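Batch job 17 of 40 flagged for manual review because the log was empty.
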Amino acid sequence: MEGVPALEEPLKKVLGPATAKVMAENLGLHTVGDLLHHYPRRYEERGRLTRLADLPMDEHVTVVAQVADARLHTFASSRAPRGKGQRLEVTITDGSGRLQLVFFGNGVHKPHKELLPGTRALFAGKVSVFNRRLQLAHPAYEPLRGEGAAETVDSWAGALIPIYPATAKLESWKLAKAVQTVLPSAQEAVDPLPDGLREGRGLVPLPEALLKIHRPQTPADVEDARSRLKWDEAFVLQVALARRRHDDAQLPAVPRRPQPDGILAAFDDRLPFTLTEGQRKVSREIFDGLAAEHPMHRLLQGEVGSGKTLVALRAMLAVVDAGGQAAMLAPTEVLAQQHHRSVTEMMGDLAQGGMLGGAEHATKVVLLTGSMGAAARRQALLDLATGEAGVVIGTHALIEDKVQFHDLGLVVVDEQHRFGVEQRDALRGKGKQPPHLLVMTATPIPRTVAMTVFGDLETSVLDQLPAGRSPIASHVVPAADKPHFLARAWDRVREEVEAGHQAYVVCPRIGDEEDDPKGRKKKEEAETADRRPPLAVLEVAEQLARGPLAGLRVEVLHGRMHPDDKDAVMRRFAAGETHVLVATTVIEVGVNVPNATAMVIMDADRFGVSQLHQLRGRVGRGSAPGLCLLVTEAPEASPARQRLGAVAATLDGFELSRIDLEQRREGDVLGQAQSGARSSLRVLAVIDDEEVIAQAREEAAAVVAGDPDLSAHPGLRTALDALLDEDREQYLEKG
């Protein structure tokens, strides 16, 4: 895309240093190519005026409207005590509503001459309220004159007026004029799509697409341009990912096949239940990957409670059978300890390698976290270096330089979205040859996002819950509208405890911010805003123990507790000694207490859709049905309440993740933290453009298979170089 000299020309040479500086600082645009790929957000039709009735408050808007009235007032003020102050009030209309523009002081002269009744113009400014009426103070404007004014006709050629993503310092029409200046360079844009692909799919050439997106004559022009530019984005990104997969396939790896009578077979024989069909299918896919002579890179996504940990453990044992070691990386100490506990329980004497009473094929299962004592840590490091420990479970303490493996064959990353690429890469670098990689997430990801964000991984999906898992009933508790509903929620918690079960209460905040300047600042900001600060674990636990849950054993759990204290609290809760655990989201993933049947989430509107689904998955893990109560003070018609209603209405995580994505901006989903190259999407929408992404993935795989170096596709290479600057290249390298 941006690979020819004309498109690489710095904007300061073409537009002048002042304009170029504003574009670079506010919009990240540096070259002619950058500006050509800064597409209009929408288009206004010359003959149809924008609806002033729908203007959002406090936002920078661009509208097309007609002057209905203009009046100049004089007034006295501290600056003009003799009544010489001047204020111009201009009323504009579009048939749906009216809006007042105000200009003061010396700024009144130009608009007083130009904004005469009947004049139609583009106006841009920030919408505010004065005397209960909407107004724009000192808006920038651009008159839309008739055919006679050659300069304006040139600037606004065509029937549609493009409205660009703009800033207060750079109005849409100034961007439009800048684009007009560089538009001739579009003819030199090198087309990244192979001719056969472009013609086969009926897509217009790139120079034509750039011309049509910036200067469309008809809505059909816009559609042609967007279809073409979506394909560019999808295809170039998928080629980058396909090359990554191709390069991985060239790397050597040690094939790891389980023994017919080894530790995996012994483990399977002891399982007290039958694997679900889904678990068997996914295990087969993983075992096929482990048996290959190049590294497996697989994403395992599964519903909360679908048995991902069991599937991962079987993969780890297959590697131990083949003489290798397997490491599981967990995002928090609570989760690492929980995994270690559940893995050793599931394995029984198979986890007692080298110990008295250990089974015939047993191995050692080691825990490694940052807060372990020196002696335990030394022993763990020794067990890893000698190969005595076949399985290690840990936090990012596993990544440190001191940690050496005897023969690392498989890395399992749990809750992938919480780890940076560098952390995964550092652990993978500890194998003598590249180890196999299994990435797990319980946050269901729509297929298109998986293809885009995790496009260099093969995907397995566990969507079937094991037999015996109970349904979870979810209800919204509107605490502000119906306080008696909240009282009833605490009664329900009591009833669950009296029936021999346990409950979680989740709060957004810890409540010890007095010791934490950052937290205190956040709390003060929340209090100065209209909303009260979020509810806190320490305060809520105290109120419950004194009030509605008096007499029950209530404990707290949060991320700033000492690791030993956290572990002790979780052990007491798992053993049934604690009735109610009041916690932050540290319980969000992996915590497994089958006797916990109820969860009350306070200020539920302050959590994301996927996070609520994760939290809810902590209950109903045994034979008794689960109950999740979403407590909120959000008004009934608000988007927050609609979001909570959606969570209460379905247990389908894939459906909820789709809702979640639709409510967030694309950039957040594919944002800088996770994506690198992914944040370059401008017209491609990962939810709506599923078909384009799927087709682009197929086409990209075919192109890379036939020409891995892209030597026959110079335009595509140029586009890849533009997409994969150094940081993005590293992101894909580390995948």
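Reviewer: the log was empty due to a logging misconfiguration, but the result itself is present. The chain has a mean pLDDT of 81. Unflagging and moving on to job 18.
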